[in-house]
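ok so for the tutorial part 2 we go from a plain amino acid sequence to predicted structure tokens. step 1 is just haveing the sequence, like this:
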Amino acid sequence: MSQMEQMRADVLTAALPYIQKYSGKVVVVKYGGNAMINPRLKQAVMNDIVLLAQVGVKVVLVHGGGPEISATLKAMGIESQFVDGLRRTDLDTMRVVQMVLAGKTNKDLVGLIGVCGGRAMGLCGIDGKMILCDKRPDYEKLGYVGDIVSVDPRPILDALERGYIPVIATVGIDQHGAAYNINADTAASEIAATLSAENLITLTDIRGLMKNIDDVTSLIPKVTLDEVEGLISEGIISGGMIPKAHSCVDAIKKGVRKAVMIDGRVPHSILIEMLSDEGIGTMFTV
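step 2 — the prediction. this is what the tokens look like for a chain of 286 residues:
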């Protein structure tokens, strides 16, 4: 046996206990950021998801599409505005969000999974009223950004039972049929809780929670739920990281066994997280 063959055998042997741990379990991956716009990283993420599905993990991919939405809005002469890390969504912006997320972005991911050898089904929160939502109390400030009222898991479970990887665009619907922009981190958390997921993996554009964004050694590998608000007050968690942190906290509170933030810029970061004791990034614990 060559050294390369021995190395491959060692890798598979080391991965086996983790594959057995997750086989038949639901893992929700929230996908966005740089890993979504860099072709090499996108390919690596889809390969990881297909591999996990083929060894028996029930992977649910929940995606945003902020960069593509912003680029489309700019091309249409519509200014992007953010409030506390959330996109302000007037009616014109909402139409673009629905078009980009549920259309181009969602189907691009479904197609790429197919190229990687997997079987995916594109869904959005409007399908079967999967994500029922309502306007937020701060509607005047944020516009068509919805608060999730409930998640109906049946479309997701139907796809999983038929061997598909559900790929979910985070557009919701209210009782009157109006579409709403749903923060993808929040949606991933609610979906993970509804499915009693084993793990919620949030891909970010940094290594995880960092005490100092410029110091790679300042990663916080574990954070308890009680520590999160203090880190927000200190400014360690700020901007778009706030809804990500809150989504991980909410998921754990609602019964998801594990919630982690990992660096989506690292190729195969999902596999590194799932198939090792050390993991990667920041894990949220009780």
